[in-house]
Amino acid sequence: MKKIACIMFTALAFCAVLTAAETRERERDESKWSSMTYYTVPIYKIYQTRDAYVVVYGKNRVGAGTTTIPKNWTKGNSENPRKLKFRSVSGQLQPFMTVVKKDGEFARVILNVPPDTNVKFWGIANANRVTDTDKDTLEELEL
After folding, report:
1. Are the beta carbons of 38 and 101 closer than 8 angstroms?
2. How far apart are CA 17 and CA 128, in angstroms?
3. How far apart are CA 46 and CA 67, in angstroms?
4. What is the pLDDT, as a whole number, of residue 141?
5. Would you say 100 and 81 are in contact if contact means Cβ atoms under 8 Å apart?
6. Which are the contacts of 97, defined by CB distance < 8 A and separation ≥ 6?
7. Distance between CA atoms of residues 71 and 133, nearest Å
8. What pLDDT digit, counting tens, does each position of 9-45 carry?
9. Each residue of 36-64: pLDDT tens digit?
10. Please, what's the b/e burial string for 119-139 (b: 16 or more CB within 10 A of its CB; e: otherwise)?
């Protein structure tokens, strides 16, 4: 009986050593890490003007903030990629905005919104009151 218990204990210890050797943490190669980061905020409403979109977004579930996004950001070329992209959402998914940064600098903004502009989500703003329609980068959003 003692021999069986001794053999079982030895086998269990051997399996534990093999398992520990296989599950050790691999070294992390930081050169493979991406410099891209992003954050997402809910969108409550988008107002359109001839030159820009005024986006009303949620701030950390308390309050709302606004930002202006020029419409010419949808155009781009090989030297200057576009800074504004649209994705359509439908069903239960609520509209949201994703801000993408590369090396801590603004890269692009993605508006995930309903494609039909005839819904209550879309509105029209007074063009005389909208400023920053020709800016080059998105300011840091207040979250």
Report:
1. yes
2. 73
3. 10
4. 76
5. no
6. 40, 41, 42, 43, 55, 57, 109, 110, 111, 112
7. 8
8. 787 777 666 666 555 556 677 777 788 899 999 999 9
9. 899 999 999 999 988 899 999 998 878 89
10. eeebeebeeeebeebeeeebe
Most confident of 76-85, 94-103, 128-137: 94-103
Amino acid making up residue 134: D
Do you know the residue count of the chain?
A: 143
Task: Scan for tokens 């781009």, then name that residue.
Answer: 76
Distances (CA, A) of 8 to 12, 14, 133, 143: 6, 10, 75, 59
| Measured distance CA(73)–CA(97) in Å, rounded | 15
> Which residue type is seen at 18?
L
